[in-house]
Write a structure and sequence with these properties.
459 residues, alpha/beta, D-Maltodextrin-Binding Protein, domain 2, 2 domains, 6-stranded mixed beta sheet, 3-stranded antiparallel beta sheet, 11 strands, globular
Amino acid sequence: MKKVLSMILALALAASALAACGGSASSSAPASAAGSEAGSAPASTAEPTGDYAGQTLKVAAIETAYGVEMWQQVADAFEAKTGATVELTTDKNLEDVIDPQMKAGNFYDVVHLATGREKALPETMLKENAILEVTDVLDMKVLGEDVTVGEKIIPGFTGNLTTNPYGDEKVYMMPMFYGPCGLFYNKANFTEGGGELELPETWDELFALADQTDIPLFTYPTAGYLDAFTYAMIAEVGGQDFFNKALQYDEETWNSAGIDTMFDILGQLAANTNPATPSYANNDNFTKNQQMILDNEALFMPNGNWVIGEMADAPRADGFEWGFMALPAVEEGGDRYSYTFFEQSWIPAGAENPELAKLFLTFLYSDEAADIFAEAGGAVQPITGMTDKLSADNQVYYSVYDNGAKAAIGTFATTAPVEGVNLKDDLCFTMDSVVSGTKTVDEWKTAVRTTVDTLRGAL
């Protein structure tokens, strides 16, 4: 799952966040001793050599649809370059594995776990000032290359409220795999794929489709996927400055006509959502909502590009072909946005080996590591030149910004902890209640504004 919104959204984006479902047993072992591909030579028993021989780096990475083998390969390559030993831990529910360990004082050196997930571990640690500042990593040379990390990262992927969560110039979260988040659909239903429906360019055109087809207009895997979706909508109803102010809980922005417009659109979507959606909108059954697109039981679905892999073996309607677009514009000729979800890697403030951890972060932006990630199934690093290496299918999604869409990048500003207050629950997960009819749009809007007011006071 996720987005990053993502994509930038995702966005991963995934999820992008957007991208965590189900559970599995975790694995933790030195990289050089972990299971290798069948038929490969056994690991060498020779003593490691290199500038960092004898040092151990503890790395924890979320297991997503991209798999874990890519992390194993990157860990092996880092060991070969440095002589260090990498102890790699992976799990689909990584928070359940590493949070108890860190609370007991057993810290990891590098963690790959995105913000925007239900358990919000990195957000909690940011609120507690428990993540190390890594601004200096941008000026470090990429391990094995004669270029700095900052020179390789695509402009805009740092300096936003995700990487710089306290709203200053300091970086705490390093941007990782990214993907545009928008609306997926079956091309076969639209004229571009031989169907009868015109692909909508505005929200009015999308809602007009309800009179042209019996297919419900909308579904979502879980309501959590609406984070990237609403980020893009905030930008659409007000523009980039409006978007930035909204992410910092600006009072005037959240009480504006633009926010009213956003909730009006969300209300119309709720009224046109496949009514079975809320019952499946959980980590155990979310693929049943994704299946609605494949079975022509819903026209549009917010998601990140990882959904292609997640549903690769699922049955589908005759002639089905994945389509992807940015959100429709609020008005004719208006800007269309796609949130860029991206995952993040970070260093806990309690890491025992922070300097080696920073070196590992630089290696994640090397051509060698980026190629390993991309070959694993399309995990794309936000570094220049990567999209040219992608498959034709993936280029369709990553080229959304080449087709006129604007990118929305960033997340809500980090605040001090506020017990019982969760903006994502109010802004996104209330959609389930609105679709099922137990809450109204006005109640939804009021609850969100109350939460925003509370968080503004906790900045």
